[in-house]
Amino acid sequence: MEVKAEHRYAKISAFKVREVTREIQGLPAEQALDIVRLIPKKAARLIGKTLASAIANAENNNNLRAANLVVKQAVAGEGPTMKRMHTRARGAGARINKRSAHIKIILTEAEPVVEKPAKAKGIKKKKPATTAKAAPAKASEETKN
Fold first, then answer.
1. If we measure between CA atoms, which residue out of 8, 1, 28, 2 comes closest to residue 75?
2. How is residue 25 annotated by DSSP?
3. Residue 105 near residue 2 (C-beta atoms within 8 A)
4. Strand, coil or helix: what is 3?
């Protein structure tokens, strides 16, 4: 079952948001939330809120457990750009683009991963040494011919 949450018209560039969304793609939802909390960026705060909303949607609307959720897709698309003007020298003007983004997170239910006990590693066997006499003998036979 897929669960999604979307934050539309976020006042941040989609380019800045994509940096953080790439980090959480494919991770378990709770681990992704922990990672996002540690990233010191505005985009991480916005993604954290959206991710928390998606987890809450899964728990309340679909009766899914947060431990079983995985981030299937985390996408940042471009929203509308507000065009503003900045005055310049000699009566000229420069354009300022105030960009916005649409943040979309899709979670899916996955089987809980049970860690298997690590197998004891055996002692490596040494390879038999090649005979050093065989190689020079062949070389001496080639020189005779």
1. 8
2. T
3. no
4. strand
| CB within 8 Å of 95: residues ≥ 6 apart | 83, 84, 85, 86
CB 102 within 8 A of CB 134: no
d(CA 76, CA 47): 10
- Chain centre distance of CA 27: 7
Summarised one tens digit per residue, pLDDT across range 41-85 is: 999 999 999 999 999 999 999 999 999 999 999 999 999 999 999
Which residues, in sequence order, are CB contacts of 3 under 8 Å at separation 6+? 54, 57, 58, 61, 62, 64, 69, 106, 107, 108
pLDDT for 15-38, tens place per residue?
Answer: 999 999 999 999 999 999 999 999
- Measured at the CA of 73, the angle between CA 69 and CA 75, to 5 degrees, comes to 135
Helices then strands, each counted (H, E), the chain: 4, 5
CA contacts within 13 A on the Cβ side of 38: 8
Phi then psi dihedrals of residue 57, to 5 deg = -60, -40
- Alpha-carbon span 20 to 2, nearest angstrom: 21
